[in-house]
Amino acid sequence: MAHSGGFMQRIMIVSDSHRRHGNLAEAIYNEQPFDLLIHLGDIEGEEDIIQELAGGETIMVPGNNDFFSPLPREREIELAGKKVLLTHGHYYYVSLDLQTLREECIARGIDIVMFGHTHRPLIQIEDELTFINPGSISYPRQADKRCTYIMLEIDDNGEMSFNLKYV
Ligand SMILES: [Mn+2]
């Protein structure tokens, strides 16, 4: 039966908090309630604090500054039938360009890749692959130097919309 205004999944995507979680706490407060928090690395030992702030389901992957993290180095999850890779990005030289990451994702049948590391936000939707980088919630490097994150909304038809947000 068709219906409207029903189920909507909200996912908060952040990265590179680097042990400075004030902005993250504020953003979480502003966005709650959401269904899932994804942190794409450079957490620097604050996994427990982030988990507590989120107060619900979280998925985190380690960054290049998370040397002794027990987290698995990357994760593959499914969202609305799409195969999603969560990775910090440094294994794929994303500071240089997206080519290595693109080849890896296409070889693995990934539909959406979410990464961080560059501290520069990106929402790039291509035919084969969508690139999502929420930028840094603490230390932005893009021209406007604003701390960023991304909210993903998935409606009951599986339609996704990615929205860049500022703290
Ligand atoms: Mn970083």
TrEMBL record:
Coiled coil: none annotated. Keywords: Metal-binding. Its EC number is 3.1.4.-. Its cofactor is a divalent metal cation. Belongs to the metallophosphoesterase superfamily. YfcE family. NCBIfam families: yfcE. This is Phosphoesterase. It comes from Lachnospira eligens (strain ATCC 27750 / DSM 3376 / VPI C15-48 / C15-B4). The lineage of its organism: Bacteria, Bacillati, Bacillota, Clostridia, Lachnospirales.
